[in-house]
Recover the amino acids of this structure.
């Protein structure tokens, strides 16, 4: 089945720093790709998604571009805030998730 | 709109006791998922249902675990007998459709289980 590999964390950044969390996927076809975010004490919630190659998903200042040639869907944000501290999960539409990357943003 | 509703939010039980976790999916969603989250193993898919029928239970760890979905608005995950290694957060989730639709999966807030 499809699978994703995420960059291992934890990641610690200062406020306003640039964020990249790497995600690569393995799939037999062209799956939809997702980033979910889990804030402390909560369930996962969709952050953004892309359904076909070259699509860019974006939300709350986060972006990720579906790159077929590199089988990647890296998450980026130009200037992180303390409130972005959470665990980020990459996923395909195979209903299985990556290991998660914990992000801590310090003031 | 109400999201996925899980109960109980927190449970502490003694080893050997039966544990029942409950879930009400979002109305109209055809798929229901049970996940388990631990520090060691991350987020694992245990089982999922389509239209109340179990489709894939390959993630269920062993016979002590069972899940049912008697109707479109209710599902249970049961552990009998419980063991300390079952301590985890159990998430229920639902979606309008499964793969390859690309539909969003909506998660409940989780049931935090501690087995002592």
């Amino acid at each position: 089945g499809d699978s994703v590999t995420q960059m291992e964390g934890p990641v610690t950044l200062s406020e306003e720093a640039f964020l990249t969390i790497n995600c690569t996927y393995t799939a037999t076809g062209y799956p939809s790709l997702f980033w979910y975010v889990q804030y402390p004490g909560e369930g996962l919630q969709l952050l953004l998604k892309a359904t076909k190659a070259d699509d860019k998903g974006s939300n709350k200042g986060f972006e990720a571009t579906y790159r077929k040639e590199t089988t990647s869907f890296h998450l980026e944000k130009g200037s992180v805030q303390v409130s972005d501290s959470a665990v980020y999960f990459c996923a395909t539409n195979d209903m299985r998730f990556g290991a998660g990357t914990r992000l801590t943003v310090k003031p | 709109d109400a999201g996925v509703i899980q109960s109980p939010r927190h449970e502490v039980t003694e080893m050997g006791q039966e544990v029942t976790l409950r879930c009400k999916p979002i109305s109209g969603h055809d798929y229901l998922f049970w996940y388990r989250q631990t520090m060691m193993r991350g987020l694992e898919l245990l089982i999922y249902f389509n239209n109340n029928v179990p489709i894939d239970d390959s993630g269920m760890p062993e016979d002590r675990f069972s899940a049912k979905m008697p109707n479109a608005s209710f599902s249970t995950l049961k552990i009998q007998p419980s063991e300390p290694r079952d301590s985890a957060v159990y998430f229920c989730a639902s979606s309008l459709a499964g793969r390859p639709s690309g539909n969003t999966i909506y998660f409940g807030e989780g049931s935090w289980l501690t087995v002592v």
User: Anything to note?
Assistant: The longest strand of chain A covers residues 44-50. Chain A has no helices and eleven strands. Chain A touches chain B at residues 29, 31-32, 34, 36, 41-46, 49, 51, 89, 93-100 (CB under 8 Å). The mean pLDDT of chain A is 92.
